[in-house]
């Protein structure tokens, strides 16, 4: 369908294009008679003014891009909600894209979003260095990393204190008598999986405890497939996130094991289902909604105040003890 132009409106109303523009932008006085003619023509033709011209004049589009790995993971859904609720209050529109934890897809989405002249980007990256992103940031493109810092790139960020969360979880497990551990972690290239493993390895060394560690991916299927094949049960299976833990629990229970009687299982994130899981999941809560809101607030500050120095915000995790772990 042919797009109605400002020229069509002027012709229909029998006025000049500048008169139509003055009515649209309220930029100069127009007689009531002419104003009514223009408004009637806009209604009759169902004219929608293009935002592009206004955006180019203002030097901003009022849109923010957000690249995440996968919206079907409730962790990301919750951070997106927090970000969008803040942005909407500040008259920004969010454009959400899923990278599927694929670096090529990430670059493609980044280039598409930049071609749409977004004012800034919230970015939860796959993990490894992204040269296209690094070059854009060098040139002053506004980015805030959310949940995952990207190695080798200096930018503002909002993350949770992953180490503190792991320390508190492992402290609880060791105090309640767990001595042998298996850690089924998420994607190897991600900041969050790496830092949780570093802390886990450090605590195991300090307490001289037996452990094995495996990188998989942050999904239910990864947990289920691992749980299906496990031979000897440790005292506790620490999982990189709640979805992995759900998969492990289901696989072990399908094999006749009891959780936590035969083995304790823990997660990370505390997505909404975890308190209702069977058994309810012991996990580390990330303030997901708040992370999204704080990251959006920081990005708007960078855009509107032209802030150049990077800023990092580290939020507090919270250990949540439920029925998937033995108490001693
Ligand atoms: O559930 C997805 C995981 O990857 C979360 O733990 C989050 O930290 C993200 O990095």
UniProtKB/TrEMBL annotation:
MF GO annotations: DNA binding
Domain HTH lacI-type, chain residue ranges per copy: 4-58
InterPro entries named in the record: Cro/C1-type_HTH, HTH_LacI, LacI/GalR-like_sensor, Lambda_DNA-bd_dom_sf, Peripla_BP_I
PROSITE patterns: HTH_CROC1, HTH_LACI_1, HTH_LACI_2
Annotated TM spans: none
Pfam families: LacI, Peripla_BP_3
Domain HTH cro/C1-type: start-end pairs: 2-48
Keywords: DNA-binding, Transcription, Transcription regulation
PANTHER family: LACI-RELATED TRANSCRIPTIONAL REPRESSOR (PTHR30146), XYLOSE OPERON REGULATORY PROTEIN (PTHR30146:SF24)
Name of this chain's protein: LacI family DNA-binding transcriptional regulator
Species in which this protein is naturally found: Thermosipho ferrireducens
UniProt lineage: Bacteria, Thermotogati, Thermotogota, Thermotogae, Thermotogales
């Amino acid at each position: 369908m042919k797009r109605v132009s400002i020229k069509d409106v002027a012709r229909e109303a029998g006025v000049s294009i500048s008169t139509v523009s003055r009515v649209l932008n309220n930029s100069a006085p127009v007689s009531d008679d002419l104003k009514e003619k223009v408004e009637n023509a806009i209604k009759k033709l169902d004219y929608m003014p293009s935002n592009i011209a206004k955006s180019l004049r203002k030097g901003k589009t009022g849109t923010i891009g957000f690249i995440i790995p996968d919206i079907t993971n409730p962790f990301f859904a919750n951070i997106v909600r927090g970000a969008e609720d803040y942005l909407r209050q500040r008259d920004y529109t969010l454009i959400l894209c899923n990278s599927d934890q694929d670096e090529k897809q990430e670059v493609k989405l980044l280039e598409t979003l930049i071609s749409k002249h977004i004012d800034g980007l919230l970015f939860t990256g796959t993990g490894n260095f992204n040269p296209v992103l690094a070059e854009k940031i060098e040139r002053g493109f506004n980015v805030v990393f959310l949940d995952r810092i990207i190695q080798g790139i200096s930018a503002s960020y909002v993350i949770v204190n992953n180490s503190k969360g792991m320390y508190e979880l492992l402290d609880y497990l060791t105090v309640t008598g767990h001595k042998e551990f298996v850690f089924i972690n998420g994607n190897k290239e991600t900041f969050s999986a790496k830092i949780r493993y570093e802390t886990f390895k450090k605590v195991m060394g300090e307490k001289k405890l037996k452990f094995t560690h495996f990188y998989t991916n942050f999904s239910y299927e990864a947990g289920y497939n691992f749980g299906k094949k496990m031979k000897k049960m440790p005292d506790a299976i620490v999982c990189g996130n709640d979805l992995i833990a759900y998969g492990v629990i289901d696989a072990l229970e399908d094999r006749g094991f009891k959780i936590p009687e035969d083995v304790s299982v823990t997660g990370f994130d505390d997505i909404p289902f975890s308190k209702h899981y069977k058994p309810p999941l012991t996990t580390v809560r990330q303030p997901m909604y708040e992370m999204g809101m704080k990251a959006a607030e920081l990005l708007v500050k960078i855009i509107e105040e032209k802030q150049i120095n990077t800023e990092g915000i580290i939020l507090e995790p919270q250990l949540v003890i439920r029925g998937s772990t033995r108490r001693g």
